[in-house]
Design goal:
Elements lengths: L2 E5 L16 H12 L4 E3 L28 H6 L5 H4 L13 H18 L5 H9 L4 H13 L10 H4 L3 H10 L1 H27 L3 E6 L8 H5 L14 E5 L9 E6 L3 H6 L3 H13 L2 E4 L7 E6 L9 E4 L3 H11 L4 E3 L7 H10 L3 E4 L21 E4 L8 H7 L2 H11 L8 H9 L4 E5 H4 L29 H13 L7
Parallel strand pairs: 1-2, 1-12, 2-3, 3-6, 6-9, 10-11, 11-12
Antiparallel strand pairs: 4-5, 4-7, 7-8
Helix pairs in contact: 6-9, 12-13
């Protein structure tokens, strides 16, 4: 069936507490999607973020971000009182998140809720048991980070860096209360999310989640599983991830994530990856795998290098990994992010897996050639986006085009003028792609001030917040009419 939906990060939802949460505005957004006759809500990774606040650099690939726990829902649970929340300064700007203020305020108020929480309840114990694969390591990791003043785990005392048994016992005892606090926050995160997801399912809305291919060096994933990554005898990465030089960057992109030791993963029958995908499928209906090409071949850069220029291509796990996942989990609903430099080995892997690929309209309008991103070149097993979190909004993007690109785009899409972002929304929804995903900013006609991320920059990303008055019935009806015209989300 032809379907469509909206991409909106959880952190961009409106709220009274500085950042989007799993509270009332998330439910209101699901109601909007239902009114607009949409099928999908796509979000970004939900993990706890580090310096720079990128959801693609998380302290854990399994844990959830405590910032998304809704404080008003905690008052309904009897764990907080409004007079404990109201005086707190979460940031005054309704347009952008102030992560500094969120960091200083959020954990203090969550600690109040934790101190009222009854730790001896059945649901909490069952949650810890069902997530034992990761939660104890994660909780200890976060407690140790706090104990060490936020320093990266590679700078901790040698005994706990290397997870010596005596050290694990020592710190598990010393930091018992902080460990319990970390597990409490995960319990509430998952509890609130699961209730919200059930509500979405009742409304006919499926959630598209996101798995970053790599994990952060400063994460519980690397600390607790060092043999699964390319580390030296001192537990320092030998190779890190990135992208090779191209037309957009002479030195490539240096991401800095440790490279997987795929030989070690294979020896363990890819168990860590199976658990990772299983966990994600427990949270989402469909999973977008970021940088899918890295499973066929990946750019490996020496750790000490300051750019990605001296990296080299290495062979990824390919078919073996996905066969192992399928053997354990059966067929899985995946969108493969296959943007960038795509070679024949990537195409073969994608065809073997049968996952839909991605196309981004903003990459299409080169008047000199017949781009694969132009809708007349799509096959049906495709997900088309007006843009992703790494792109500008349509309105901002149009302003950046050369005159020849702008003329081609306007002629192809039927744009009435340079402010007509809806022409590209219509082009995506009208395309032959089985699925169309629209940036929320593009149906709101928002310019570059609404951009989520500018790759390879730090400081002003992941901050945009949506005004609670933007989602009107008029807007829902406009989107519904367009989807109906092009036979998307038709009820059987």
């Amino acid at each position: 069936m032809r379907k469509s939906g909206i991409i909106l990060p959880v952190f961009s939802l409106p709220s009274n507490h500085g950042i989007g949460t799993f509270g009332i505005e998330a439910y209101n957004f699901i109601d909007f999607l239902e009114k607009a006759n949409q099928s999908y809500w796509q979000i970004l990774p939900l993990g706890p973020t580090s310096y720079g606040d990128s959801p693609y650099q998380s302290f854990s690939t399994f844990a959830g971000n405590p910032y998304f726990i809704d404080l008003d829902l905690l008052t309904k649970d009897g764990l907080l009182k409004q007079e404990e929340i109201n005086p707190i300064d979460f940031g005054k700007d309704k347009r952008y998140i102030d992560y500094g203020k969120i960091y200083l305020s959020r954990y203090k108020v969550l600690k109040i809720a934790f101190n009222r929480f009854n730790k001896n309840n059945k649901e909490y114990e069952e949650f810890k048991e069902s997530n034992k694969f990761w939660i104890y390591d994660y909780a200890l990791f976060m407690a140790l980070k706090d104990y060490n003043g936020g320093k990266t785990w590679t700078s901790w005392n040698e005994d706990i860096r290397r997870r010596e048994q005596e050290a694990l016992i020592k710190y598990s005892t010393l930091l018992k209360d902080e460990i319990e606090f970390q597990m409490f926050m995960q319990f509430k995160f998952y509890e609130q999310w699961n209730i919200l997801r059930s509500y979405a399912k009742e409304k006919g809305i499926e959630i598209i989640g996101d798995i970053p291919i790599y994990v952060a060096e400063d994460s519980s994933d690397v600390w607790s599983n060092p043999k699964l990554f390319m580390l030296d005898k001192d537990l320092i990465p030998t190779k890190v991830a990135g992208c090779p030089p191209d037309a957009f960057s002479e030195t490539g992109q240096l991401w800095g994530n440790p490279i997987y030791n795929w030989k070690a993963h294979k020896e363990e029958q890819f168990n860590w990856w199976i658990e990772r995908v299983k966990s994600s499928l427990g949270l989402f209906d469909i999973v977008r795998i970021d940088h899918f090409r890295g499973f066929a071949g990946y750019w490996s850069i020496p750790y000490e290098d300051e750019t990605a220029a001296n990296g080299r291509w290495e062979v990824g796990p390919g078919i073996e990994l996905f066969d192992a996942i399928k053997k354990e989990l059966g067929d899985i609903n995946v969108i493969a992010e296959d943007l960038g430099y795509i070679t024949e080995d990537v195409k073969r892997l994608l065809n073997y897996c049968g996952f839909p690929s991605m196309k981004v309209l903003q990459f299409a309008f080169d008047p000199k050639g017949d781009s694969e991103y132009l809708p007349h070149n799509y096959n049906k097993n495709t997900v088309v986006y007006t843009g992703t979190h790494d792109n500008d909004t349509i309105k901002g993007w149009i302003e950046s085009l050369s005159e020849s690109e702008k003329e081609f785009c306007m002629a192809y899409t039927g744009m009435k003028n340079e402010d007509d972002a809806w022409a590209l929304v219509k082009t995506a929804i009208a395309s032959t792609a089985e699925t169309a995903i629209i940036q929320i900013q593009d149906i709101l006609d928002i310019g570059s001030e609404g951009r989520i991320n500018i790759p390879s920059t730090i400081g002003l990303n992941w901050r945009w917040r949506m005004d609670k008055n933007y989602l009107t019935d008029e807007l829902a009806n406009k989107l519904k009419s367009l989807s109906t015209l092009y036979r998307r989300n038709m009820k059987e």
